[in-house]
User: Which sequence fits this backbone?
């Protein structure tokens, strides 16, 4: 089957490459000429493990191609995916649907055969109806259906998540949409990935509800971690203890510096806006958003406390290890590192950072932070070493060397990747999250 993927960003490119790998004939479309040129040269626009090899293999096999020409790209495609960005709209936090609507108009104008138009972008409830109206208004003579098919992949694990999903959600209002989507996902279906067919609006809401629920789970355990610090508990044991209850589940209970990334912050905010529009408050999510936002700066203050308080911290040097919002990505969007660095520099602390993939993108976001070539260079002369992101490269630091290089043996581990007893045995002041 020919599939067109409009938008060759994170979701579009990963989904397109994976569909091609399953044997479909895929054209990825993007209006950004330089992105398409680079893809032709085998250069990926994002860092995602395994993506370059997957793209390369499928291009060579003749199943994956790239173009800036939407009309040509969608010709003959039975399924046309919309996978463009829906960022937070400046000023009000609503999802900005400019790109989605633009693509819908273009698709409507250029449709040359019967097709299903699939929104893979995260879009607020009711967007499918609007996309349908836009395409119909373009006056197409061809049969079309608009389907919602949200994507649940995680950065850094995107290919695995796409190929072995917990579930595939398809929101469709008619049999044509259902028939084509069954064909699109047949390879995964046969892999026994469950497919949930539902209404378009339910499907659109499922994406937001899933992300908001996960953000809530993280925020919940983060607050339990704070309480553990006060009462003398261990948040990892608490997480394990509650997670063994099948109704709660063990995943997404790692306490840390607060969630970031391209999805949770923007999607929780957009959900709040939808709820406001429909006069149906989601107070739990309101609390989650506020709590997570203030947590990021609170982590900066935690580091200042480890330096001996505001007065003592002024003029001291802190090494930040890890800047991206999570490991195995170069994505800095809403990363806690930004707020942490800001809190520190506001307090007159000199910050030096190292990240395996994120430094280029981080530089303009944190102009007052110096970037080091590697972990040990950052650590040299530091009064405190802070692990912000749990990259594997930070899991086995040579603690003797760290102690030798640093001005003071202070380790603030915001991801709980070290055992307190091990680090303290080496003579460090060790501060972590929810463990005393
Ligand atoms: C998320 C969803 O997981 C995915 O299904 C959706 O499609 C997009 O948003 P992603 O943003 O790539 O994916 O990363 P994820 O691994 O979910 O982590 C999000 C944030 O939560 C990160 O900042 C991470 O550090 C944090 N997190 C995650 C925790 O603090 N604790 C956890 O237990 C899990």
Assistant:
């Amino acid at each position: 089957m020919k599939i067109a993927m409009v938008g060759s960003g994170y979701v579009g490119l990963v989904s397109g490459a994976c569909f091609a790998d399953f044997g479909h004939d895929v054209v990825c479309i993007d209006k950004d000429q330089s992105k398409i040129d680079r893809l032709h040269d085998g250069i990926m626009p994002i860092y995602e493990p395994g993506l370059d090899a997957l793209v390369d293999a499928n291009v060579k096999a003749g199943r994956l191609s790239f173009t800036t020409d939407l009309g040509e790209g969608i010709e003959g495609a039975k399924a046309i995916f919309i996978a463009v960005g829906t960022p937070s709209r400046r000023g009000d936090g609503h999802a900005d649907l400019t790109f989605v609507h633009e693509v819908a108009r273009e698709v409507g104008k250029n449709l040359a055969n019967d097709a299903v138009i699939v929104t893979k972008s995260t879009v607020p409830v009711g967007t499918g109806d609007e996309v349908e109206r836009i395409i119909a208004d373009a006056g197409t003579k061809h049969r079309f259906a608009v389907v919602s098919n949200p994507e649940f992949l995680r950065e850094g694990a995107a290919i695995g998540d796409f190929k072995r999903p917990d579930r595939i959600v398809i929101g469709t209002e008619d049999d044509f949409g259902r028939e084509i989507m069954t064909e699109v996902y047949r390879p995964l279906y046969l892999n026994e990935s469950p497919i949930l067919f539902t209404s378009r609006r339910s499907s659109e809401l499922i994406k937001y509800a899933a992300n908001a629920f996960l953000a809530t789970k993280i925020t919940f355990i983060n607050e339990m971690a704070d309480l553990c610090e006060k009462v003398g508990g261990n948040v990892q044991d608490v997480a394990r203890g509650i997670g063994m209850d099948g109704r709660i589940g063990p995943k997404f209970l790692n306490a840390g510096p607060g969630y970031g990334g391209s999805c949770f912050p923007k999607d929780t905010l957009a959900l709040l806006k939808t709820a406001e529009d429909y006069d149906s408050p989601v107070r739990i999510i309101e609390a989650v958003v506020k709590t997570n936002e203030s947590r990021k700066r609170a982590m900066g203050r935690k580091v200042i406390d480890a330096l001996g308080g505001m007065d003592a911290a002024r003029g001291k040097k802190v090494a930040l290890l890890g800047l991206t919002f999570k490991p195995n990505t170069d994505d800095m969007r809403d990363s806690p590192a930004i707020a942490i660095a800001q809190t520190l520099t506001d307090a007159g602390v000199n910050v030096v950072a190292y990240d395996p993939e994120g430094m280029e993108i981080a530089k303009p976001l944190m102009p007052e932070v110096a970037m080091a070539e590697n972990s040990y260079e950052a650590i040299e002369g530091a009064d405190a070493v802070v692990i912000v992101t749990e990259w594997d490269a930070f899991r086995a630091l040579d603690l003797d060397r760290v102690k030798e290089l640093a001005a003071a043996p202070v380790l603030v581990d915001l991801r709980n990747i070290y055992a307190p007893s091990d680090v303290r045995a080496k003579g460090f002041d060790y501060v972590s999250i929810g463990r005393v």
The longest strand covers residues 2-6. The CA atoms of residues 34 and 68 lie 10 Å apart. The mean pLDDT is 96. DSSP finds 19 helices and 14 strands in the chain.
